[in-house]
Amino acid sequence: MLNVTCEDGILYYVNIVNVYSLLEMRVKMSAINGSNSIVKKNLFNAFGSIVGKRAIVVEESILTANQRENGEILDLNDQANLEKTILDSKGTQNIVTEVQPTDESHLKRIQPPRLIQMLVEKGSVPQEKINRALEIQRSTNDKRRLTDILVDELGEDRDTIFQTIARYYSFETVDPTPSFGNKEKLQFIRQVLDSLPPYYYEMAVRRKVLPYEMFTNGYDKIVVITPDTTHPDVHSIARALQFPKYEIKHVTLANWNELWRQLAFDQGAKQLGLDVEEEFAELTKDETEREIERSLEDEIGRGKLNDIIESMLVDGVRTGASDIHVIPKSQNRTEFHFRIDGKLSLWSALTDLPAEAVITVIKDRAKNLDRFEKFLSQDGFAQRMIDNKMFRFRFSTMPIYASDLRAKLESIVIRILRGAEESLGLESLGMDKRTIEIFRKSIRRPQGMVIFTGPTGSGKTTSQHAALKDIMDPGVNIITIEDPVEYIIEGVRQVKLNHKLDFEGALRGLLRHDPDIVMVGEMRDKISAEIAVKLANTGHLIFSTLHTNDSISAVTRLYNMGIEPFLLAYTINIIVAQRLIRKLCDRCKMVDDEIDVELLMSSGLTEQEIKSTTFYKPVGCAHCIKGYRGRIGIFEALQMNKEMRKIILKSRDYIDEDALRTMAMQNGMHTLRQSAIDLLKEGVTSVETAESMLIED
Description:
Layout: E1 12-18, E2 23-29, H1 36-51, E3 55-59, H2 65-70, H3 79-90, E4 97-99, H4 113-121, H5 127-139, H6 146-152, H7 158-168, H8 183-194, H9 198-207, E5 210-214, E6 221-226, H10 232-240, E7 245-250, H11 253-264, H12 267-271, H13 276-283, H14 287-299, H15 301-318, E8 323-330, E9 333-340, E10 343-350, H16 355-364, E11 378-386, E12 389-400, E13 409-417, H17 426-429, H18 433-443, E14 448-453, H19 460-470, E15 478-482, E16 493-496, H20 503-510, E17 517-522, H21 526-536, E18 541-546, H22 551-560, H23 565-571, E19 572-584, E20 590-591, H24 597-602, H25 607-612, E21 616-617, E22 628-639, H26 642-649, H27 657-666, H28 672-681, H29 687-694
Parallel strand pairs: 6-7, 14-18, 14-19, 15-16, 15-17, 17-18
Antiparallel strand pairs: 1-2, 1-3, 3-4, 5-6, 8-9, 8-13, 9-10, 11-12, 12-13, 19-22, 20-21
Helix pairs in contact: 5-6, 9-10, 20-21, 23-26, 26-27, 28-29
């Protein structure tokens, strides 16, 4: 705490909000041989670079004795609470002095001279009005743009000014009158607008920005309309709409207001529970009041950032994202991406706060993350109640390289872990009837191994939990070993691995814990595989996973780990290979007349099957945005039988995969490729999405 002596002996406390490192400090101050005004000037000179818009100074007498002695931080930016504290401690109100920034800050809001000159040359604004507006801006330290002063103070026509500016910057002007009364158009605008995070939604209403149309022959591009095309917030709002491309167009204020009135008071909006009166009232706010709000927003950068991060978590849950990626692109740009249906898409980007500060605040949200550790990978957890359901979030941090060697940047990936009620039943996974039948028979055997195989993110954990729910019985002891615990399952003893309890140690402990059914994570090496096989061979039913391309190669993987052929032959009940494929949106999918016939024929489809099948392609609408909505599994189930056991038992130097595959096909096994073809025939997915499964290895 900084101490300085004041001429009159008064001690000052100042609350400094550092909007760059997002740290709050309370500094105890006075000044040497200086009046109060000098104290305030020196204070701003000393701390102005980290304060932001202003610092607030109060006399020591304002603080309570407890606050002075115990060092309690008083939020001096909260004027209401500050006044209450003052009254409680003294019974009378003391003066709170603001230290204003230097006059240089007004330079940031002066618009380009060539633009101002153009308004005069085009006859949009008289030169004397320009001079008067400049005088108001400089003499009163007005925080508004010059164009806003021309409109609000000097009575110039807003549409004339902004239409001239739009033409100057080559923004196209849109006439939205054909959309008035068009229910489909209004519903589209409302749905896209509602997809904005709360912070950007409020900004869109305040800045008069609306999504207007999506190109039907290029659905990845959104058009937004606004009367004020050059306001920097317009680009932030357009980027937050999550379309790869966007175009800004101009609309007159009268037309925008009429479109908003129809949109806000549309019956569909009322059904969505929108407070249209509150939103519409926002439009009528005095511009000066909005500028005051913007000034306050700058001072509470941490609060704004917290709101954005909270919105990120909530929107991640509501959009069905599996992961949230926080990626620092530079020292002052941080991007937030959602992985939805297996694909990353931009949710939002922050460009007004340092990336290190953003990462620090996010790390503060999780347990077990050290905000000061920037050179090691860390794992942490958090949980939130969202829409009356409990969700948990797994945080993973990783240091990444920055072009500026002074910067210490970290990438963060947040996995959204949903509760047991979010897990699916077997019928919802996408298995065909035959696969469900043989799978249920295999998981109801008293012992053996049930193995799920596939790449990361293929849904193996979801399938494991669906299987456990299907065989849940109070009369059996079910234990799981997980890292992390993704679904909380009532009635199951779930063990989470940590730095003191590794996979091998947990498996060994299970042998003395009297389990009936055990679910373990991936069999990573010979030791974990041997213990899992031992459990399966001593009267336990084991669920586990491997990373292989298909079900047959899982047998080879275990064999190469050192598991004896006779153990493989008699402990494996079933091996299920799986992938996740994106589902076409039922609302907008269209018939695909330009399919790759050669690719389909090479996948096993006959020419007659191709002709008799209707194939579909993605389009994109307000419901799905890019043409896909959700994912579904494709499965390949290898069930062990007498013939397959004989093939495995004959193995010497290698597993005869071709013989196993031939025998499995003869027994009716559906391959991953055939499962993908079935979804194509049913119109569930597109050739483009299924292509990776159709290409012959």
